[in-house]
Amino acid sequence: MRIAQIAPLYEAVPPRLYGGTERVVAHLSDALVARGHDVTLFSSADACTRATLVPVRDQAIRLDPAPLKSDLAAHLSMLHEVRKRADDFDVLHFHVDMVHFPLFEDMAARTLTTLHGRLDLKDLAGCYRRWSQFPLVSISKNQREPLRAANWAGCVHHGFPPELYPYSAAAGGYLAFLGRISPEKRPDRAIAIARAAGMPLKMAAKVDDADRAYFHTVIEPLLQGPGVEFIGEIGDADKPAFLGNAAALLFPIDWPEPFGLVMIEAMACGTPVIGWRCGSVPEVIDDGISGRIVDSEAEAVAAVRDLASLPRAAVRAAFERRFTADVMAANYEALYADRLLDTATAGEAVVTPALLERAQTARLRA
Amino acid sequence: MRIAQIAPLYEAVPPRLYGGTERVVAHLSDALVARGHDVTLFSSADACTRATLVPVRDQAIRLDPAPLKSDLAAHLSMLHEVRKRADDFDVLHFHVDMVHFPLFEDMAARTLTTLHGRLDLKDLAGCYRRWSQFPLVSISKNQREPLRAANWAGCVHHGFPPELYPYSAAAGGYLAFLGRISPEKRPDRAIAIARAAGMPLKMAAKVDDADRAYFHTVIEPLLQGPGVEFIGEIGDADKPAFLGNAAALLFPIDWPEPFGLVMIEAMACGTPVIGWRCGSVPEVIDDGISGRIVDSEAEAVAAVRDLASLPRAAVRAAFERRFTADVMAANYEALYADRLLDTATAGEAVVTPALLERAQTARLRA
């Protein structure tokens, strides 16, 4: 198929530092190329991709040192360019929330829009209702809760190449916490669990400006006690060792996490995840195989004490079965096939008989 | 004419506290009604207007206590509603930068877009080039500098009802500074000028979070000396007395100010403005009548010493001639007439012979 991937312009594809959406778009684009598709990526010029790159800005917005920029103008210019070339593609896959809706109304059936963020924002329901002709993809089933009536075409979990986080057979002697320090990530819970379980905790955590007061008043005092090592923000290069050497990842969140990439990063290393029953967690963790889904600190402590029941090889196997980039690409391929069938039915001209056959095969498989 | 005014959703129309754009939309809408037009205002429901209100959000975004909101979704929903009703209007007047472009491409000639902000942002030129069919209005000539090639249909200075800032015949014994404390507003220059001229300075200034460091390190030490009174942020109710009792307003800016409402607020009170030759200042101040345009602190000090040469009645007269809401509405009316002539030429059906005649009269007058 001829597939356009339209990425946000905030971070490079993949990002230099953090940034989930652009990372997923990077992996998806490469995996679709590997599966034989003709993929065109619209993004900033600093992308690294196996797809054909259409650069629409000299660099990603967030790290661009220019003092005055306009996110909206940059995205609208990109979408104008996508529309000019829209006839070159069988399917257009957007990762930019809803900003593209007004430009692609006359070809909505040929588009797919993955929503990457939380959906419990006040203004979203009205907007998605007004443009309900656009088929949407969630990144977990739970993410849909605030927008159950929206036009959901599918649910595709994130994935990444299995070699990115190598399997590590031997568990280290510490628990890991990785993420931003913020009340909704509950770093305080992670500390309480580790202490109660009598196991050291290493915290690799970024502190944003918005969370500095919380860090100073709530978390810093907790770090004074024994057994907790705060190592600050770490880069991509350090994450495999940090996660792979841990006995388990603690994911004691208190918010509707739409996916939670770090859970599958840990699983890829063979490191089981102890996660709260919240947001996407029950969908991502195979309870008793790749980790434990818990409802309380007591359950989390019990899970830490019972880590021997979660063999690391089985954790890695769960990752390989469900969360590789190729699995993600195959799932999206089936949804693209749906789009092709829909548009072919609608009498549009872009679908050749060969493509149609391929699409029907994918639909049967899906 | 049947005119739609499309306001931003960030502040109420007019704003409860600060906010320039929504204030101008409020005055323009009321003045157009007073001139006999059929005006419909699209905005948040907390608007106070003589126009027919179409509320598209329960309240303005910035002061909405809801923790999670989406600016973009809110604006797109509003624009969707405007488009549904577009045939009810002869002219659609947008005050929302460029977010509406994709929805009104097929009726761009019937639209007018006033740009209210600075235009030297990295991504703007490309965006306005791609949607060059949309006629734009600047709020000063100088504002256009970074985008000289854009499709400028006119330039209309801001205005407000003359009774809002009553004329005050007697000058008080202090200089006034009113605005945000930020490096580009140069409160430090205001302090230096007042001290060199030997006249007290009163500073009514808001300190945003982003400017707190600048305030503490640069401005606070300067406040220790004599003759400067820092009175913090003041509301609309206190501004007429604060400006009207001043001998002059200091406006020593260091950035491309697109308009600068406070200059005409001072003028309405009869208070002359001493402004830097920067941004819109040379267009707004009638040099030697409503104030002085200066290039240096020495010139500013000389202007303070020579304030007797600027009679307050002449300052007020300059305001009444150029900057009332009715003057602004008349200027926009002429531009709306241009739109009517253009769309009539293009063979569209919405223009009646009576309207056409009125439009041609307005064009002759303009």
Structure keywords:
13 strands, homodimer, 12 helices, 366 residues, Rossmann fold, globular
Task: Present the secondary structure layout.
2 copies of one chain form a homodimer.
Chain A: E1 2-6, H1 20-34, E2 38-44, E3 52-57, H2 71-84, E4 91-94, E5 111-114, H3 124-130, E6 136-138, E7 152-155, E8 174-180, H4 187-197, E9 201-206, H5 212-223, E10 228-230, H6 239-244, E11 246-251, H7 261-269, E12 273-276, H8 281-284, E13 291-294, H9 297-305, H10 312-322, H11 325-345, H12 353-365
Parallel strand pairs in A: 1-2, 1-4, 2-3, 4-5, 5-6, 6-7, 8-9, 8-11, 9-10, 11-12, 12-13
CATH superfamily of the largest domain in chain A: Glycogen Phosphorylase B
Instruction: Using a beta-carbon cutoff below 8 angstroms, give the protein chain pair with the largest interface and the number of residues from each chain.
Output: A-B, 30 and 30 residues
Q: How do the SSEs of chain A run, as a string of H and E?
A: EHEEHEEHEEEHEHEHEHEHEHHHH
Number of helices of chain A: 12
- Described by its quaternary structure, the protein is homodimer
Which strand-content bin applies to the residues of chain A? 15-25%
Per the CATH scheme, the topology name of the largest domain in chain A is Rossmann fold
Main sheet makeup of chain A = 7 strands, parallel
Radius of gyration of CA atoms of chain A, rounded to a whole number: 21 Å
CATH class of the largest domain in chain A: Alpha Beta
Number of folding domains of chain A? 2
Number of strands of chain A: 13
| Low-confidence segments of chain A | none
**Portion in helices of chain A:** 25-40%
Report how far apart the termini of chain A are: 17 Å
